[in-house]
Structures are given as C-alpha cells and as structure tokens.
Amino acid sequence: MLIAQMSDLHVTAPGTAPTTDYDTNARLAAAVAHLNALDPRPDLVLITGDLINGPKPGEYEALAALLEPLSIPYRVVTGNHDDRDGLRRTFASSGWMPMEGEFIQYAVEDFPVRVLVLDSAVPGSPVGALCARRIAWTAERLAEQPERPTIIALHHPPFDTGLAFLDTLRCLEGAEELGRLVRACPNVLAVLCGHTHRQTALNWNGAYGFVGPSVAYQVALDLTPEPPYRWTEEPSALALHQYRPGVGLITHLSPIGDYPAREFSRRARNS
After folding, report:
1. CB atoms within 10 A of CB 250
2. What single DSSP character describes residue 264?
3. Beta carbons within 10 angstroms of residue 43's beta carbon
4. Is the distance from CB of 8 to CB of 79 less than 8 angstroms?
5. For the chain, what is the radius of gyration of the CA atoms?
6. SS3 (DSSP) at 203
7. What is 2-270's CATH topology?
8. Which helix (H) or strand (E) holds 240?
C-alpha cells in the first residue's frame, strides 16, 4: 500500500494570498497535478490539517475546487486553521466525513492499513488538545482490531520535533495519554502529523513518528537554541509512505516541481 501525505495547504479565497511571497492556491494546484502523475499511483492521500488559512469566507469553496481534479481517494484531518462546520459542509457528500459529533474523528477501513483520524484542534488556538473524550474514542477504535496494522493521523505532533522555535506550536494536551495507547498497541505502525511545516522523523513509544512537509511553504531548518521563525524557498513537498508487511512504513519525500531524472555520465558510473 502506498499512502501520500500532504499537509498544511493554507488555501485562501480566490484573489488573495497569505503574503506577497507565495501563492498557496497555486502550490496546491501543482501538488494535485503532481499526485495525479505519480507512478505508481498512491492508494490514498492523507491531508494532515490546515487545509485553509483562515477560516475566512470563500476558502473552503476554493479548497473544494482545487481538490476536485485529484483522481486519488483522499481523507482530511482537522487542523488549527480549520473550521469543523466548514469541513463538514465541504465534504458532506463524500460518504466518509462524519456529520455529527463534537469532533471530526473517524476510521478509514478500506485499505490494508487501517487509518484512525484524530481531531486535535482547539478553536482559536494554534496549540492542540486530545481531551478525555478524544482519547477514549481512540482507545475504543484500537481495541476493535488489535492485530490490524494501523496508522494514527492528527495535525499536532504529540512528540518533540527537536526544533526549538516550534515548541509553542507543537504543544498538544493529552500527548502522554496518546503515547500510552501507542505503547500498548504494537499494531500501531506510525503517527503521522503536520503543523510544523518541516519534516521530522523519530521513534515514539515504539511507533514511527513523522511530521510531513508543507505544500504551502517550508519553515527554515535552524537547530540553534533560540532561532528566529523564518520560511525558506525550499520546494513544496509531500511524503510517500510505502507499507510493506513485516517491514512497516518506508517514507520518501517527493518534491513538487520539475526535477527530471538524468542518466549518470560514464565517468560517474565508473567512479
């Protein structure tokens, strides 16, 4: 099974953009074209939150139009920039969007790997939370199929990313409780997240923890103790997670843009 992970799209209303430096809508359009052209084609696209930049009027309509050409099944995660009512309204006819309940949490059951989508959003706040009700839902779902390979997807990373300037952004109330569940369930292959606009990978409570890069823009890598918060012209990218039974997930970054493969020269082949 091949899963593509897009994250942090930050779509805006037509004719607007987050800044004059980049056009997030154009970058999502490029990402959709990139996904449609992949060979082999992913079985599923997971969009790990912050689908829009507001929430502001017109953004979800723009999002729907930009995702319409995507020819691969996809599922969405609620991010801190998202609005639950807007998500439900936009994906009401999808057949997979839960239309009731306080949180947008659901299981994706149609593939060899099961995916549990968690809602870590706190309206009006950049930080996240997994309250007792959300943790209980997760525990119940994990108990249903304790042997099946499972991925947990949420927006806010529950683990330390090692990036000091993102400490305040990564705060997730309930992270320890989620960690205990993951540690007790060896069938959990991975915890996939967004939010930080910077790819990070680590082992977390016996599972693979991964933060996907952003389609909108990347945050500059700076490992100093008190770095400034800066963005960079690194290309937009998505992650490709390949599941192999007995191995787990193998992740590749796929930059979005024109980077054609080239043959090595004879000298390079002989070196």
Report:
1. 12
2. P
3. 16
4. yes
5. 18
6. strand
7. Purple Acid Phosphatase; chain A, domain 2 (3.60.21)
8. strand 237-244
Grouped pLDDT means (10 residues each) for the chain, 271 residues: 98 84 93 97 98 95 98 98 97 97 97 98 94 98 98 96 70 94 98 95 97 94 86 93 96 94 75 57
- Count of other CB atoms within 10 angstroms of residue 221: 13
Q: What is the pLDDT of residue 94?
A: 97
CA 211 to chain centre: 7
pLDDT at res. 269: 58
CA distance 78 to 82: 6
Domain ranges of the chain: 2-270
200 strand-pairing partners: 211
Q: What is the pLDDT of residue 255?
A: 96
141-149: long-range contacts at Cβ-Cβ below 8 A with a sequence spacing of 24 or more? Answer: 141/107, 141/116, 142/116, 142/181, 142/185, 142/187, 142/188, 145/114, 145/187, 146/185, 146/187, 147/187, 148/114, 148/187, 149/112, 149/113, 149/114, 149/187, 149/189, 149/243, 149/245
Buried b (16+ CB within 10 A) or exposed e, 88-113: bebbeeeeebbeeeebbbbbbeebeb
Location of structure tokens 């915890």: 191
